Amino acid sequence: MSYIKVKGHRTYKVRKGTVLLDFLKTRRLPINAVCGGQGRCGKCKVKIKNIQKPPDKLSSLFIEEKLLKRGYRLACRHRIVNDIEIDIPQPERRFPKISKNVGLALDLGTTVIKGAAIDMRTHRVRKQTKAYNLQGSFGGDVITRINAALEGKYNTLRKLLLTTVGEIKQRLGVNKALFTTIVGNPVMLSFYLNKPVDSLAQHPFRSTITNGLFIKHSRNYIFPSIGGFVGGDAIAGLLACGFNEKSKSVLYIDLGTNGEVVLLKGNRIFATSTAAGPAFEGTGLRCGSLAVPGAIDRVTFGKKSFRIHTIKAKKPIGFCASGLIDLIAVLLNRGTLREDGRLLRIVEVKGISIVQKDIRKLQLAIGAIHTGIRILMNNARVNPKQIEEAVLTGEFGVRLNIDALYRIGLLPKGIRKVRFMNDLPLKGAILALKNDHFIKEADKIRKLSSHISLATCHAFQKAFISALRLAPWS
Question: Does residue 106 belong to any structural domain of this protein?
Answer without folding.
Answer: no
